[in-house]
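Hi,

I'm pasting everything inline rather than attaching a file, because the server keeps stripping attachments. The sequence lines come first, and each chain or strand is labelled.
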Amino acid sequence: MNASTETYVDELREGVGALPRNCESLQFDEPWQGRAFGMALALAEAKTYPWESFRQSLISTIGAWDKSHTPDDETWNYYEQWLAAFEKLVLSQGLISAEELDRRTEEFQTRSRVELI
Amino acid sequence: MSDDHHHDEDGHHHHLRESETYYAARTKALESLFREKGLIGTDTVDRVINFFEHDMGPFNGAKVVAKAWTDPAFKERLLADANKGIAELGLKDGIEGENLRVVENSEDVHNIVCCTLCSCWPWPLLGLPPYWFKDPVFRARVVREPRAVLSDFGVTLPEDKSIAVWDSSAQVRYFVIPQRPADTDGWSEEKLAALVSTEAMQGLALVSA
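And the predicted assembly:
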């Protein structure tokens, strides 16, 4: 370890949990991240959209974040970017509408919808 | 996976950020709508996650490295055409596994992989990308000062060794064959594979026996 640099590894530890030095397989901090990840792949597998469309959406979403934040901004969360990219894609493809998505989100938030997911 | 999801929602709320409730609900709303519209089945997402947990992971990449270390002819084929090479070992490329390119570390050159645009990563060989690979600080620094980044990962290279930084993209996803550690003559592929970390296969760690 080089002590002169404010060690990079320590930077990564802040707020986001330990740096996986010997990563196993999945790296989800919270369960919704796994669901968001799986959905984006599942719809590509089902040929609902080409995978490349999702990838482009992810690149532009992360690109917009990079432009408006400094790299060490603590609000960075990869799967929030992932989810935002996924939402943008499915809304722009007309697979669901923004209204029904907002309504259903609220139903889950207020627990007025009982559906096990 | 469904179970974990459920428990977390009910059991550990107070540990999580306020926004967790929103993101959890948002993700559920999306999945609920896709199920309703028949775009995905009730077990589709579980199946995808399960596949990534059990069939895709750094154990695949480690197998490729061990084979390349012990079989020079295989290594040549792998360097010439990585997708054909891994197919020989029964590994599928599939999503995010197209257009692989293998680069080899040597006495003269050390290769590091990054993706400055987003997080292109050879999933079939390494599973999902670890946190550091997606981190904006890493993405910004690795191209500019690879030696400093390496040093923060605990790797110090000789001054005269050159460093090549490869930027993965949809067109090419890079994978590194690290240098085989000394004193491993006669080791089985299985024993060698156990030495190889995810970081080593992207040039952020060395392999030691």
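Chain A has a mean pLDDT of 78.

If the labels don't parse on your end, tell me and I'll reformat.
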